[in-house]
Design a protein that fits this description.
Length: about 240
């Protein structure tokens, strides 16, 4: 199914990277707060592209986004274009767990996000209503008539960024995260004790991603069971 985009969305604006001179294209235009050059990794302010902050180019050489920047598709009935990519990680009990996140621009409903971890995907949107969190024994969060159980809390680091973002990105960057699950949904809090943002993610299969963006080949098989992956036995009776 094809969607007609507003004329303003079809327009692009660009400039040359202050660090390497490569062309930098803006797809979300005035929505973009920062952009990372895909050639050298310099993080630029689109309102003042003469300012550049560098991230380690060695990290960029190891990164190949599964969904290429600029890809367009229709995901769950809504148009989406991949405009940004970041690799993030947490460290738990001495082990580092990296995952990838994609910034998707929807010309009608704003931004949404995809996360990818070992073949597991989540379709994510920011939410504005604050969930109610209680912590009598094990913390739980209530949102949209659902109860989410606390899964884990950790410090998330942003290691690599490419493309456009609707916020000011920094590398490296660290933020406290807390995840609550009610499969197939995950409710996540990111920020500090005084200021935080919440998002709601829904588990989605790799097959849906491949079909939405017409990606070549086949998606990788998911490894293990993810935090909010729905159980294949949910519809069956038993203990």
């Amino acid at each position: 199914q094809d969607f007609d985009e507003p004329a303003a969305v079809k327009q692009t604006r660009g400039f040359n990277c202050k660090n390497c001179g490569a062309a930098v294209e803006l797809r979300a235009l005035h929505h973009t707060r920062s952009v990372a050059c895909t050639s050298c990794g310099a993080i630029l302010d689109p309102n003042d592209p003469t300012l550049a902050i560098l991230q380690k180019s060695a990290s960029l050489e190891r990164i190949a986004p599964t969904i290429p920047l600029g890809s367009r598709g229709v995901l769950r009935g809504r148009p989406a274009q991949v405009i940004g990519f970041q690799q993030r990680s947490i460290r738990v009990e001495g082990t580092t767990y990296p995952w990838n996140e994609y910034v998707l621009f929807d010309p009608y409903q704003g931004f949404r996000y995809l996360s990818e971890y070992l073949g597991h995907w989540s379709d994510i949107r920011a939410i504005h209503a604050l969930p109610v969190v209680s912590s009598k024994t094990r913390p739980v969060a209530r949102y949209a008539d659902r109860t989410f159980r606390h899964f884990q809390s950790a410090t998330a680091s942003t290691n690599v960024v490419l493309g456009e973002f609707p916020w000011r990105v920094e590398v490296p960057d660290k933020v406290e995260v807390a995840d609550f699950v009610a499969p197939p949904y995950m409710l996540s809090r990111e920020g500090t004790a005084n200021e935080a943002t919440w998002s709601l993610g829904e588990y989605i299969t790799g097959e849906e991603i491949w079909k939405a963006f017409a990606l070549p080949g086949e998606p990788r098989d998911p490894v293990g069971v993810f935090a909010h992956q729905p159980s294949p036995y949910a519809a069956r009776t038993g203990s």
